[in-house]
Please model this.
Amino acid sequence: MLAALRKRLPSRNTALFWGSVFSVVGFYKYNSNESKKRLAFYCKQAEAVANEPMGALDTPRKVQVYIAAPMGELGTRKARLHWEKYILPVFVAGALDYELTLVNDTETINDVEKVVRGGVHSRVAEEIKEQRRKALELEEGNEELKLWRQAIVERKKDNEAREIMNRIGRAPGEANVSSWKPEPYPGVMDVVAVGRETWVEVINGLSEGATGSLNYSVPPLVPLDSEARAQQEENRAISTSDAAVIDTAGTVAPSAPAEVVAPQVVDYDRFDSRRGVGLPAAAYIAHYNLTGWGSLPLRIWHFFHDQENVDLYARQALQVVFESTRRPARDAQEVIDMGRDEETQPVWEGQSLDVVVDPAVAASLDIYDTQA
Model:
């Protein structure tokens, strides 16, 4: 009987193989279930904020989330997946509205594609400067700036209509121009930076926006394709009938180059008393980008222990949902050192990003205590 039973049992190698497979799969499923439980725990904590009563005239909170390409990557795909997996569920559970901006600027030099940094920086700086301009326009005695604002708004509307006309080949209706544009948020949106790279650009942008020049160049009128074709036909006709001007000495005088019209610049700095503007609070959420062969052991570890990532990233997202964690920054050094641990990753070897923040800006900046 034992001999017959022994024949039905798998061999030692087969038993080792299937035992290893079931162990790995079981360990992964256990980790997956634990990660879901921990994420559900943080989402449950965030629901307490969502269930708080609001007044009829209260404005729901909204944050501006910036994601730049992580160090070592050419795109924002991994950072976007990181956002969707660990951060977004907590924001949704806490009823925290958001605007997500993915910044991925690249350039190719000698057939090598590289990431161009500074996209988040320029966007944040322009947002702060625009707030300062609007504050100046509301001050008494600045009617000139109000007139310039009306002219700029009309020029932007004309350019939008002309761009649509160039695409569809006809003049669009008013509904086609304005229906797709979202309503602007009536308050000040706090800024959330995902990753050390984004944090550096956000702080640099806040500093430049609070201290930089407010002068604004009026955008030029976008030419219509029909106007461009008509101008080309006119130039071709002129060049055919009178290709060159011959002077009295018999030499051919080249035609004069087209005159370049300098853009109009609105001098906001003349009205700026440097009283400052309320800066949005800034929040840092980590993103340790594990890429390359040097990070392979740690990636394998996190594959079976993803609950550690949930505890780190979801907890930081929860600190943003809890507005009570917002506090003034202690000093400029705290702002500079925020997220510096990410630079210890192998992908950061030989690379660094510098935070350039005005001490006065750091002194007036509020941050979310996501590192507690």
Confidence is low (pLDDT under 50) at residues 243-260. The CA atoms of residues 111 and 163 lie 32 Å apart. The longest helix spans residues 12-50.
